[in-house]
Amino acid sequence: MKKFKILIILIAATILVCLASLVSCGIIGGAKGTKGLEYHLWSDGTYAVTVGDADFTDKIVIPSKHKGKPVTRIPEKAFENCTSLTSITIPASVTIIEANAFLGCDKLTDVVFEGNSQLISIGAGAFKGCTRLKNITIPDGVTSIGSGAFYRCGNLEKIEFPDGLKTIGSYAFENCSKLKSVTIPDSVKSVGATCFDNCDGLTSVTLSNNMKYIGDFAFCDCDRLTSITIPDSVTSIGYKAFYGCNALANVVIPDSVTNIGELAFGSCKKLTNITIPDSVTSIGESAFSHCENLTSVTIGNGVTSIGEYTFSNCENLTSITIGNSVADIGYRVFTKCIGLKSITIPDSVTSIGDEAFNGCENLTSVTIGNGITFIGFKAFYLCEKITEISYNGTKSQWEGVSKEYNWNSHTGDYTIYCLDGKIEKN
């Protein structure tokens, strides 16, 4: 009997030692880890995990503990180019996924974050080139998504952002061609350059109500985006922010915006009208060029200068209202606006740039304010239907306006009507 009791005690002790070993390895007391993973002790006493000898494994589970200590980090390039990997389970203990951690895992379809995730950061290029990844829900604690984090995830259809997210890096979702809708939480204040560039499946975008800046190329070439509501927190719209959004028909620019960047809405072929509020002081070059269905433009009273090519090649533009603070109409601003029949240039304008109205072949009537001091080279070139120019000054004032050579070349046989009489074309 005594020997039997000793045997029972030995068996129990063996079981306890085995259990302790399993706990220390993270097999129990945390998720069961995939065999072959490598662990690296970090300076803070926690572990980072890399693929090790599991690089040909299709489904990988990262344990929450190793040797009794938490696994908190997936370091840079930890699973880079693991072309057999289809599924990864990331425990709640992981706080950081570093740059390029899963770069080029082109068979990865499932990323599972365990409940109560402590993740706060997804690094640059973390899932770049994961071309089979279809959807992902970012854990609630994440505040930062790095540059190119999901770049060229061509099958990504759905992304859900947490409410506490603060930063979406440049080109984070560029070339995610099957992404259909995006809702950016109010905690985000800016969208990085090229963030959703060439997401040509994107049809719906809801921007943060606290967003200050829409970055360069942010939604460039989003071919299926039909409308966008820009919140009244935005002050600046960047270079090519919505360039080439061919289905974009409705845009409301709020009166918080002060700057519209170069080519911001260039080649938005279905855009029909635009009102630029008084808050805007600067319109970049070619901001609305080649918007071929744009028919109506109202430029607010805050704008002082209209940049080069701003409305060039807007073939169906028929109505333009220029605000009373504009002083300069730049080079080729309205060139080839062939639908334009009349234009009123307010008294505030002092300069009409070279070729400003070049090729406006249906323009018949022009009203020019008395503030004008300079009319540039070929300003009205090929405006062959002009019959009337109304000038809000005297004949002597008109004669005093500096006019470049050929400013009126190939125009109609117009008459200039001044306040004190008329002048025939000579």
Layout of SSEs?
Blueprint (H helix, E strand, L loop, with lengths): L1 H23 L13 E4 L5 E4 L8 E3 L3 E2 L2 E6 L12 E4 L5 E2 L12 E4 L7 E2 L12 E3 L6 E2 L12 E3 L6 E2 L12 E3 L6 E2 L12 E3 L6 E2 L12 E3 L6 E2 L12 E3 L6 E2 L12 E4 L5 E2 L12 E4 L5 E2 L12 E3 L6 E2 L12 E4 L5 E2 L12 E4 L5 E2 L12 E4 L3 H6 L1 E2 L11 E4 L2 E4 L2
Parallel strand pairs: 2-5, 3-6, 5-7, 6-8, 7-9, 9-11, 10-12, 11-13, 14-16, 15-17, 17-19, 18-20, 19-21, 21-23, 22-24, 23-25, 24-26, 25-27, 27-29, 28-30, 29-31, 30-32, 31-33, 32-34
Antiparallel strand pairs: 1-2, 4-5, 34-35
Rounded to the nearest angstrom, the radius of gyration is 32 Å
In whole angstroms, the N-to-C terminal distance is 130 Å
Helix-and-strand structural type:
mainly beta
Q: What oligomeric state do the depicted chains represent?
A: single chain
Strand content: 15-25%
Helix content: under 10%
Q: Give me the number of helical elements.
A: 2
Instruction: Show unreliable segments.
Output: 4-31
What form results from the Cα inertia axes? elongated
Strand segment tally: 35
Provide the residue-averaged pLDDT.
Answer: 92
Question: Within the largest sheet, what's the order of strands?
Answer: 15-17-19-21-23-25-27-29-31-33
Q: What is the makeup of the main sheet?
A: 10 strands, parallel
